[in-house]
Specification:
By secondary structure, the chain is mainly alpha-helical. It has helices at residues 3-10, 15-23, 26-34, 42-49, 53-65, 102-117, 137-156, and strands spanning 40-41, 69-74, 83-87. Strand 2 (69-74) and strand 3 (83-87) form a beta hairpin.
């Protein structure tokens, strides 16, 4: 259990709620996205997303305390240190089973999607879907597995920004089985 989660338990808050609160901040979501497929220092993250290094370091510490980023390299010297971090998990599907906490994450993801959509240049391939459907359970299980595989492929294939031959893309996926409401 992470230090942040331990503190939350001491304060009487379930660990998954604390983790979602850490995650449900737009700057932290951008940091996690920036750390997908690569390790960066706070200074590199700050340059990438356009905020101060001090602010970035604060948010990275919050993410690390919740176990959402991990330290992968410490190039520390006596006078100066550089720590490089990476995203601890590319998907958020194991973060919480708490139905009261999940809306924090969904709201933050929706806000981030709105921010990113302003960069949609209208070129290239894209897909957009929204649906509430009734399907067979085996079809649902199969589709969720295929989407997870596709997301894993994208994360494994992530390259540093401006890499030759790479293009910037945005992916936001939320799929869940709904409870049936009797009418």
């Amino acid at each position: 259990m992470s230090l942040g989660a331990l503190r939350a338990v001491e304060d009487g808050e379930p660990p998954q709620v604390s983790t979602l609160r850490v995650l449900a901040h737009p700057v932290r979501l951008r940091i996690l996205s920036t750390l997908t497929g690569r390790a960066l220092s706070a200074a590199e993250i700050a340059r990438e997303i356009g905020i101060s290094q001090v602010r970035t370091s604060y948010h990275v510490r919050q993410l690390a305390s919740a176990g959402l980023v991990r330290l992968v390299e410490d190039r520390g010297t006596r006078t100066r240190g550089e720590r490089r971090y990476t995203c601890a998990s590319e998907r958020f599907d194991q973060i919480s089973d708490d139905p009261e906490a999940r809306p924090l994450l969904y709201r933050a993801l929706a806000d981030e999607l709105l921010r990113r959509s302003s960069a949609d240049g209208g070129s290239g391939s894209r897909t957009l879907a929204d649906a509430e459907l009734w399907v067979c359970p085996h079809l649902w299980t199969d589709v969720v597995a295929r989407v997870k595989d596709a997301l894993d492929d994208l994360h494994r294939g992530a390259r540093p920004p401006e890499s030759p031959g790479a293009v910037p893309v945005s992916v936001t996926v939320a799929m869940f089985r709904q409870e049936h409401e009797e009418t």
